[in-house]
Amino acid sequence: MACDVEKIQTGNRWIVSRSVVIDAPAEMIFDILADPRQHAAFDGSGTVKGSVSGPQRLGLGDSFRMDMKMKVPYRIGNTVKEFDEGRRIAWAHLGGHRWRYELEPLDSSRTRVTETFDATTARSKLLLKAMRADALNAKAIDATLCRLKDYTESTQGDPA
């Protein structure tokens, strides 16, 4: 499947945002995003390893933990900070920065999905700068959106 990720100019180094059009209804895509057990299936960073604890369906204020690996394995907790059913979900871990997904239905079967790495809420921008988090997350978002597109479009119509 082709994947044309659009780079969004935010004018802020600490906000990295990209979007892609997915041939699926917004509700279906949101159901995938709101189920942390599915995150490893579309993660493009290569850091999400699965083994999730927490609710199967996320809502505002919910917490979930997952196994990760960035050079070394670790387990991290996240809390849902923004939630608008079917339209927006964002979570953050102890670092404070957020990963946000916004869904804009284009019609009944196509949706623009925008993923944003928002470090304006981070506890340590100095650490993120040293890690080159803006550049690393830009690359990861491109891959994640393409994987989310492929994952969603290939599972469309499959019984849950």
Textual characterization of the structure:
- With 160 residues, this protein is α+β, with helices and mostly antiparallel strands.
- The two termini are 22 Å apart.
- 26% of the residues lie in helices and 39% in strands.
- The protein contains four helices and eight strands.
- It has an eight-stranded antiparallel β-sheet, covered by helices on one side.
- The protein is globular.
Number of helices: 4
Q: Structurally, how many domains make up the residues?
A: 1
* Backbone CA Rg: 15 Å
Main sheet specs: 8 strands, antiparallel
Query: Which structural class do the helices and strands define?
Result: alpha+beta
CATH class type: Alpha Beta
The side-by-side strand order for the widest beta sheet comes to 1-2-8-7-6-5-4-3
CATH superfamily: START domain
CATH-scheme architecture: 2-Layer Sandwich
Q: Give average pLDDT, whole number.
A: 88
Beta fraction:
35-45%
From N to C, what is the helix and strand string?
Answer: EEHHEEEEEEHH
Regions with little confidence, pLDDT below 50 for 5+ residues: none
Cα distance spanning the termini: 22 Å
**Fold-level CATH name:** Alpha-D-Glucose-1,6-Bisphosphate, Chain A, domain 4
Per the principal axes of the C-alpha atoms, what is the gross shape?
globular
Strand tally is 8
